[in-house]
Amino acid sequence: MNIKKELEVKLGIANGIFLNNIEIDPLTIKAIMINEVVPSDPLQDFYGTPYADHLKTTIPLFQGAGAEVTSIQDILQMGIYITNAVKNPKTEYTIDKSSIENSLPYLEAELSLFPNIKVIMLMGDVAKKAFNMITRKSTKKNAIPAVSTYKLRNSKIYYEGIRVMPSYIMTGGNILIEKSKVTMATEDIAAMLEIIK
Predict the structure, then answer these.
(1) What is the DSSP letter of 25?
(2) CATH number of the domain enclosing 99
(3) CA dist., res. 82 & res. 103, Å (int)
(4) What domain range includes position 157?
(5) Phi, psi angles (nearest 5°) of residue 164
(6) In what order do the strands lie in the sheet with 80-86?
(7) CA 154, CA 191: separation in Å to the nearest integer?
(8) Structural contact between residues 46 and 58, judged by C-beta atoms closer than 8 angstroms
(9) pLDDT of residue 177
(10) 122: burial class by Cβ within 10 Å (0-12, 13-18, 19+)?
(11) Residue 132's beta-bridge partner residues?
(12) In the chain, which stretches have pLDDT less than 70?
């Protein structure tokens, strides 16, 4: 199945929305990692080029968690799909609520493509917000409490039988500055790998 084509069939083609143009067997995916936002250049996204900016920080996090990966294909073969909560590049330093809302139908439809999910990792606050917006539609409440991520990391949170793990953003230059967040994100990925193996 081609993710982009599948989502465009369901929701139509939207201007400025970047979707993952990859072929994937949805039955093989056991974990989804939701990053914050697509880069302004699609080639720098997870499924862009082998040396894309989004992979420069993501692959080392997986390696730190003990996974022998060198490419996005290696990550997919482990049963892990990575996507972005916000499907249009940000134009300001922060991501406003309307950008999240604009992308939400695509993210929600994307999550529904994978029937065998055991874990959803929320990599950063924007991913947490987007996921809560989705869960509020059906349950009228947030799946993730409005508490700092470091306080939630060891909580066992479930939504519709799927383990939901809030963690830290895994892309961008800031991750390299905050070593403690790198350590925690790596530990969270290791925990996710244990659950899906």
Answers:
(1) -
(2) 3.40.470.10
(3) 16
(4) 3-196
(5) -110, 125
(6) 80-86, 31-37, 119-123, 162-167, 157-159
(7) 10
(8) yes
(9) 74
(10) buried
(11) none
(12) none
Locate 15 and state its tokens. 């201007």
- Count of domains for the chain: 1
pLDDT at res. 168:
93
- Hey, what amino acid is at 86? V
Please write the tens of the pLDDT for every residue from 96-106.
Answer: 888 999 999 99
d(CA 35, CA 169): 6
DSSP state of 33: E
pLDDT at res. 178: 80
Helix 97-111, helix 3-11: angle, nearest 10: 110
How far is the C-alpha of 54 from the C-alpha of 45, rounded, in Å?
A: 5
Number of Cβ atoms within 10 Å of the Cβ of 82: 23
pLDDT tens, position by position, 122-138: 999 999 999 999 999 98
Helix (H, G, I), strand (E, B) or coil at 182: helix
